[in-house]
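User: Reviewer 2 asked us to show a designed sequence for the structure in our supplementary figure. I'm pasting the structure tokens here. Could you produce the per-position amino acids so we can include them in the response letter?
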């Protein structure tokens, strides 16, 4: 009798507290960024534009999978180096297969609360960025900027002088 009550209690606890994706898949993912040239500047911002990493390549960065209740994370990775054209990459997340493990073990709380809040229900789509920067053919120096009329800041447009 005691053994069957213990089994029922264990099953009840599993039913309420299971969170397969958070436990087996984790709540964060590693992103590997390879850069050419080496030591290129890497800046990672979350979907709200907040900087979460600023460093040199190559780099390995741990990123949170979720961005809120039932909301996957999304990051923008900007890679730059003097004399090269900047590159920008988007890091997206998709549904983690382990999330459906909650159905197998009956983890109601895991499925509707724990995994959606912790970010465990998401996983990174592609954990590697290979940033091969292209040389900028108009690069002169870090102190000289070349603008076209549509890219020039308004405060500089006011200071322009026509040359005859």
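Assistant: Here is a per-position design you can include in the supplement:
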């Amino acid at each position: 009798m005691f053994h069957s009550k213990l089994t029922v209690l264990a099953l009840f606890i599993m039913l309420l507290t299971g969170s397969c994706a958070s436990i087996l898949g984790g709540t964060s993912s590693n992103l590997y960024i390879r850069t050419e040239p080496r030591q290129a500047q890497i800046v990672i911002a979350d979907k709200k534009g907040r900087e979460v990493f600023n460093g040199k390549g190559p780099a390995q960065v741990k990123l949170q999978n979720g961005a809120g209740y039932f909301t996957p994370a999304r990051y923008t990775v900007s890679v730059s180096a003097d004399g090269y054209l900047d590159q920008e990459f988007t890091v997206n997340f998709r549904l983690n297969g382990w999330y459906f493990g909650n159905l197998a073990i009956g983890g109601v709380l895991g499925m509707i609360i724990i995994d959606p809040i912790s970010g465990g229900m998401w996983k990174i789509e592609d954990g590697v960025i290979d940033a091969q920067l292209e040389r900028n053919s108009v690069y002169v120096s870090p102190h000289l900027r070349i603008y076209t009329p549509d890219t020039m800041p308004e405060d500089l447009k006011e200071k322009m002088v026509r040359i005859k």
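For the response letter, you might also mention the following. The chain has a mean pLDDT of 82. The two ends are 102 Å apart (CA to CA).
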